[in-house]
């Protein structure tokens, strides 16, 4: 099977030498930092679907820290939009480096703020700032690779992953024979992303016992993505 189809600019098979390793690393990190942020600030930094519902629950009296969620949504969208724009203005060789560099800078800022502001223990205003810093990092990270082998595999938006995985599983098991191979590949990629995000959530929860360096661990983990980049980007191919 030829995998050299014209993938999107943010396809992990185009931009990484070990695309599945890059995908797993990014999704596990997003899950871990999402769990860490939720338990510390009462808001997510990656899962903006959860934050959106908090915006309704808060004014209705069900989630008093809803301003933290609002800050996360705004920062995430802003970072994702700006980094996507930067990618379009960058050559294909350096495009993924833009995402990683901005993410790393935002992660360092987030780490320093957490250390300086005691992980949000001093009130809602502090948590708003911390959530915004973390969401800026995750908004940058989500643009690193939105596809794998031409199939949508979001890093932070796992609601879409769940939907697409169900659709692809149905096509794999019940659909026309001609499309089953691609549907199987999409189903397995979706399951890989969901499991990775869940594992990250467990890591972020367990890390609450030693929170001091959690964002720093995330910064170091994402630095590994640079080592996985293709030295000479080009159409990816692999045998079927």
Describe the structure.
The protein has 240 residues and is mostly helical. The chain has one domain. 66% of the residues lie in helices and 2% in strands. It has 9 helices and 2 strands, in the order H-H-H-H-H-H-E-E-H-H-H. It has helices at residues 12-15, 19-41, 48-57, 66-88, 95-116, 124-141, 158-174, 180-206, 214-228, and strands spanning 147-148, 151-152. A two-stranded antiparallel ribbon has the order 1-2. A hairpin with a 2-residue loop joins strand 1 and strand 2 (151-152). Helix 3 packs antiparallel against helix 4 (66-88) and helix 4 (66-88) packs antiparallel against helix 5. Residues 1-6 and 236-240 have low confidence and may be disordered.
Proportion of residues in extended strands: under 5%
Briefly note the structural class of the backbone: mainly alpha
Spatial gap, N to C terminus = 4 Å
* Overall spatial form: globular
Tell me the helix content. 55-70%
Q: Describe the biggest sheet?
A: 2 strands, antiparallel
Order of helices and strands: HHHHHHEEHHH
Keywords: Membrane, Transmembrane, Transmembrane helix
Transmembrane segments: 20-46, 66-85, 97-119, 125-145, 188-207, 213-229
Pfam family, one: DUF1275
């Amino acid at each position: 099977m030829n995998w050299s189809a014209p993938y999107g600019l943010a396809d992990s098979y185009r931009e990484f030498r070990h695309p599945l390793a890059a995908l797993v690393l990014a999704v596990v990190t997003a899950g871990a930092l999402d769990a860490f942020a939720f338990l510390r600030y009462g808001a997510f930094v990656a899962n903006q679907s959860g934050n959106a519902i908090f915006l309704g629950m808060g004014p209705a009296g069900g989630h008093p820290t809803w301003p933290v969620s609002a800050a996360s949504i705004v920062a995430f969208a802003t970072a994702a939009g700006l980094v996507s724009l930067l990618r379009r203005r960058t050559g294909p060789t350096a495009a993924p480096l833009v995402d990683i560099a901005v993410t790393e800078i935002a992660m360092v800022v987030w780490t320093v703020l957490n250390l300086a502001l005691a992980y949000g223990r001093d009130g809602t205003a502090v948590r708003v700032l911390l959530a915004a810093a973390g969401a800026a990092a995750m908004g940058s990270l989500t643009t690193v690779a939105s596809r794998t082998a031409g199939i949508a595999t979001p890093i932070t938006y796992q609601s879409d992953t769940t939907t697409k995985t169900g659709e692809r599983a149905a096509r794999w098991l019940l659909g026309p024979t001609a499309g089953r191979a691609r549907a199987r590949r999409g189903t397995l990629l979706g399951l890989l992303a969901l499991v990775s995000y869940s594992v990250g959530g467990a890591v972020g929860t367990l890390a609450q016992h030693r929170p001091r360096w959690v964002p720093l661990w995330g910064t170091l983990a994402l630095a590994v993505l640079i080592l996985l980049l293709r030295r000479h980007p080009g159409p990816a191919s692999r045998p079927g």
